[in-house]
């Protein structure tokens, strides 16, 4: 998908030429709190003057002094080319998201193997499941082929095992995915179950499911914006 370099008050961004091609995990730039409505830092309440200058957090758009908004952190969800200034709270969130973009997104794109069951069927098919390179589709390949648009996903339930009443580690073993069928109001369902044949495959599947769980959280956040 073609992209273009644009300049906003917040910095340089590399964005898709067409909005329909944007990542489903992306966020829009927030409107900045107008300077005239912000005589004091919105964190520490310090009054702005010629010495204490005001700065806007690129993630939330609120107004802060330099001390409360000094960190420059990558913000790939808004397509910024370089790290941008963010308040302490937003910087912490963005830093946590960096792991998703640096590691878990690659896990999703590399894919994993699952037994996939459609709807209420009692038959399953062994399929390789992966996220497309443009992040917009979940691609399933086996004897059959499916492409599910990420924005059409309504719910994701991760299935786990290993829970004990006294606490303990759980391991992701599958998921139930519900999505809207394009062109209708129908909701379809797929169940993904990790194979039990090779321990290495189970580990890869668990990592893929954990990454999918994180991706789902980002997807919900983007929708709620």
From TrEMBL:
Report keywords, A-Z.
Metal-binding, Zinc, Zinc-finger
Q: What GO molecular function terms would the record report?
A: zinc ion binding
- Which stretches make up the FYVE-type domain? 35-90
Please name the SUPFAM superfamilies in this protein's record.
Answer: FYVE/PHD zinc finger (SSF57903)
An example Pfam family from this entry, by short name, is: ZFYVE21_C
Q: Does the UniProt entry include the keyword Metal-binding?
A: yes
Show the PANTHER family listed in the entry: ARRESTIN DOMAIN-CONTAINING PROTEIN D, ZINC FINGER FYVE DOMAIN-CONTAINING PROTEIN 21
Q: What is this protein called?
A: ZFY21 protein
State the organism named in the record: Cnemophilus loriae (Loria's bird-of-paradise)
């Amino acid at each position: 998908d073609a992209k273009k370099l644009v300049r906003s008050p917040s910095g340089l961004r590399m964005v898709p030429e067409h909005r329909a091609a944007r990542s489903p995990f992306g966020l829009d730039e927030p409107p900045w709190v107008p300077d005239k409505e912000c005589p004091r830092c919105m964190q520490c309440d310090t009054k702005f003057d010629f010495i204490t200058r005001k700065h806007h957090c690129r993630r939330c758009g609120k107004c802060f002094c330099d001390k409360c908004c000094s960190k420059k952190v990558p913000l790939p969800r808004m397509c910024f080319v370089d790290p941008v200034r963010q308040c302490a709270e937003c910087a912490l969130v963005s830093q946590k998201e960096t792991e998703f973009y640096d590691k878990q997104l690659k896990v999703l794109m590399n894919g994993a193997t699952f037994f996939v069951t459609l709807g209420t069927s009692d038959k399953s098919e062994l399929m390789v499941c992966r996220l497309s390179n443009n992040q917009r589709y979940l691609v399933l390949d086996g004897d059959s082929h499916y492409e599910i648009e990420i924005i059409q996903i309504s719910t994701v339930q991760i299935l786990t095992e290993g829970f004990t009443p006294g606490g303990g580690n759980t391991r992701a073993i599958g998921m139930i995915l519900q999505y809207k069928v394009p062109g209708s109001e129908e909701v379809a369902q797929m169940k993904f179950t990790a194979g039990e044949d090779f321990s290495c495959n189970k580990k890869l599947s668990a990592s893929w499911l954990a990454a999918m769980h994180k991706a789902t959280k980002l997807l919900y956040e983007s929708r709620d914006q």
